[in-house]
């Protein structure tokens, strides 16, 4: 059995690795000539970590991950701690640690695990067609690929999604802009073993430790779409949006490199139920594009990969049957993740100012149990428990 995997990102590479472990031959086709991951880093929560462990990358992941032992929320103006608690109870309950990692390093790890020379770059898909003996993908350069089935992991702007669902799935602007990047660790900005978030005014500033003595940072600001802002104005923009915020936030803005800071208008896609058509399956952002507000986008793609390979390896009623079983196991799970992220997004970014003000007040009495219980519920909904 042979699978054509369209997309060499987190979802596509995880799928290719998982399918080959299940004894299925794969070919991976990626549109770009060189991978340049969108976003500086990613938080891999224990459900994603377990997937990567199962795919044989346990030690490599630990070498890339930061030590996120604590979680804290700080007041935006004073910088005072609203709540701080250990992540250990979460680790004890779910049986694995979270690992924030630089996205480019995660991507490289996946590609090396699969075999870099095997990934065919510069192959932008323009059409897919089911044939009596499988699936054919046609690329912009005129070449074609043939397989028994096809995995469409071609991202939030998927070319293949509409073929599968039969309709256009529009992206929905979530209402805020995110700036993100990597910066050298500095304990005067935040503790080196802690996920630190400053909150206020419907905005947030977050720092997570990753390997190599670096913080992953991001700034969120509710804004209209299409503002004329780019890397040339990053520091001035952030200084304006975060005027009056605490000294560590000002230090962070001073420390960032505008040339390596990304500005992203955040979108998601309304959940939909058809992830499969015949011998073609959507996976990752092509199947469930979400906001990053609960950190589950990449993890969900890893889950997809593990489930897809498991059902194809463990069922013998044919490819179409196996893909439908993949859809049945994933559709409610990924809908739940998209909607949880959207709900958290709205609270964090003051869609209703009174709700957000109440959340800020609740943080002052938060001891960790409630926040960690929500995280554990999300994590334990994954295919590996």
From TrEMBL:
<comment type="similarity">
    <text>Belongs to the FAD-dependent urate hydroxylase family.</text>
</comment>
<keyword id="KW-0520">NAD</keyword>
<dbReference type="InterPro" id="IPR036188">
    <property type="entry name" value="FAD/NAD-bd_sf"/>
</dbReference>
<keyword id="KW-0560">Oxidoreductase</keyword>
<feature type="domain" description="FAD-binding">
    <location>
        <begin position="2"/>
        <end position="338"/>
    </location>
</feature>
<dbReference type="InterPro" id="IPR047712">
    <property type="entry name" value="HpxO"/>
</dbReference>
<keyword id="KW-0274">FAD</keyword>
<keyword id="KW-0659">Purine metabolism</keyword>
<dbReference type="InterPro" id="IPR050493">
    <property type="entry name" value="FAD-dep_Monooxygenase_BioMet"/>
</dbReference>
<dbReference type="InterPro" id="IPR002938">
    <property type="entry name" value="FAD-bd"/>
</dbReference>
<comment type="pathway">
    <text>Purine metabolism; urate degradation.</text>
</comment>
<keyword id="KW-0503">Monooxygenase</keyword>
<protein>
    <recommendedName>
        <fullName>FAD-dependent urate hydroxylase</fullName>
        <ecNumber>1.14.13.113</ecNumber>
    </recommendedName>
</protein>
<dbReference type="Pfam" id="PF01494">
    <property type="entry name" value="FAD_binding_3"/>
</dbReference>
<keyword id="KW-0285">Flavoprotein</keyword>
